[in-house]
Design a protein that fits this description.
The chain is α+β, with helices and mostly antiparallel strands. It folds into two domains: about 240 residues, FAD/NAD(P)-binding domain (3-Layer(bba) Sandwich), CATH 3.50.50.60; about 140 residues, Elongation Factor Tu (Ef-tu), domain 3. It contains 13 helices and 21 strands. The strands form five sheets. Strands 1, 2, 7, 8, 9, 10 and 20 form a seven-stranded mixed beta sheet that branches. It has a seven-stranded antiparallel beta sheet with strand order 17-16-13-14-15-12-18. It binds flavin-adenine dinucleotide.
Length: about 400
């Protein structure tokens, strides 16, 4: 038997559920299907279990895309304040962590429950364990063959997300479907992901595993000031995750280990005031001790500060504020928070998210070539385009 509906959404994640509730409220008959055994798995694991569900400072500048203007319309029409209004209506307590990032006080489960409750109130049917076998388009709409039968819908919304964390149900399904219908898919790669080191850097950093410090990471003209964590595999922490989205193999990466400070002025002052101290000693007062020792062992003059001449002071200051780090790669989709690249937005409407090649077909969320920074931007994008597509589909 055929299950008929107006809108079929594939993917019960952030974008899919938002789209479904929005279309349902308009009186559309909506079905959501997902191959996973439960809905919103990435929402559940997000923000360390507390879901960083939006960022109050969201603008188009917080996103990477080959088409940087594409995200503007949807973001302007569904703002963080719209989502916050729903969160408050559901009595979910939240707080701002830093830089406009809003987190649940208690659990990301509350966000998933809110989305599911809103879908139910709007008459949306959600089915899990429902893998898709085949999608066809006829004169009367879309025919979707699944593990739970044959669906027929006038509108089809692809909200299957990106490739990160395959163990959570991520697949390349959305990209394949896009290609099936003539869309281009821009090359994908892992974003918001720890970087790995090799050779000399790997050896020298290896023993520093566990060291954390505030830095400014710079790459390709972009910079992020936040903390870095050295791990046994390489480097991580918010500053590194952010810059990883702008880094590609071979690109130069620079770290300012004393962000916002004047290293040369400080070194000169140390020479004048603490000349009899070892450089490693004074450096340990402004950097984690293990890191300071390692720097003096391999990169900086390991002697009394008064024995360091002006050219060497300049060199040391430059190293501290512009440390050249050679990353060998990323940890890949296994630990990446997002997928860069995806369905080329140039053949998708930025206001309705409908395909310009196939009427009735929509792409929303991470499957598109739009990727946010760390800090709640990716969910805000999912909510915004889910809302936009749900308003017309
Ligand atoms: P998803 O939420 O990934 O949903 C896609 C859905 O499609 C899934 O339910 C999946 O099972 C389903 N699906 C996939 N393939 C198929 C198929 N073939 N058939 C049927 N169903 C399919 N962003 C933030 O803004 N804040 C955070 O705090 C945050 N934390 C994160 C933490 C982690 C560990 C990770 C991995 C990501 C985090 N993100 C965060 C990013 C955010 O989770 C994603 O950008 C967002 O979930 C994308 O929404 P989406 O609806 O496009 O895709």
């Amino acid at each position: 038997s055929v299950i008929r509906c107006d809108v079929l959404v594939i993917g019960a994640g952030a974008a899919g559920l938002m789209c479904a509730m929005t279309a349902g409220r308009r009186g559309r008959m909506v079905q959501v299907i997902d191959h996973a055994n439960k809905v919103g798995k990435k929402i559940l694991m997000s923000g360390g279990g507390r879901c960083n569900f939006t960022n109050t400072g969201t603008t188009a500048a917080n996103f990477l895309s080959a088409n940087p203007h594409f995200c503007k319309s949807a973001l302007a029409r569904y703002t963080p304040w719209h989502f916050i209004e729903m969160v408050e209506r559901h009595g979910i307590a939240y707080h701002e962590k830093e830089l406009g990032q809003l987190f649940c006080d208690i659990s990301s489960k509350q966000i998933v429950k809110m989305l599911v409750d809103e879908c139910q109130a709007a008459g949306v049917q959600i089915r899990t364990d429902c893998g898709v076998q085949k999608v066809e388009r006829g004169a009367d709409g879309f025919h979707v063959h699944t593990a739970q039968g044959h669906f027929h819908a006038a509108s089809l919304v692809v909200a299957t997300g990106g490739l990160s964390i395959p163990s959570m149900g991520a697949t390349g399904f959305g990209y394949e479907l896009a290609r099936q219908f003539g869309h281009e898919v821009l090359p994908t790669r892992a974003g918001l992901v720890p970087l790995t080191l090799s050779g000399k850097h790997q050896e020298r950093f290896n023993e520093l595993s566990g060291v954390a410090l505030p830095i400014e990471a710079r790459c390709n003209g972009v910079e992020f000031r936040n903390s870095m964590l050295i791990t046994h595999r390489g480097i991580s922490g918010p500053a590194i995750l952010q810059i990883s989205s702008y880094w590609q193999p071979g690109d130069e990466l620079r770290l300012d280990l004393l962000p916002g400070q004047d290293a040369l002025g400080w070194l000169r002052r140390m020479k004048a005031e603490r000349g009899a101290a070892e450089l490693r000693t004074v450096l340990s007062e402004v950097l984690p001790r293990r890191l300071a020792l390692r720097l003096c062992e391999h990169w900086l003059p390991d002697r009394l500060v008064r024995q360091i001449d002006e050219p060497q002071l300049r060199e040391a200051a430059d190293l501290l504020q512009n440390f050249p780090l050679v990353a060998s790669g990323t940890e890949g989709y296994r630990t990446a928070e997002v997928t860069l690249g995806g369905v080329d937005t140039r053949k998708v409407s930025s206001s309705t998210f409908e395909s310009q090649l196939v009427p009735g077909l929509h792409f929303i969320g991470e499957v598109l070539d739009v990727t946010g920074w760390l800090g709640g931007y990716n969910f805000q994008w999912a909510w915004a385009c889910g809302h936009a597509a749900g308003s017309v589909a």
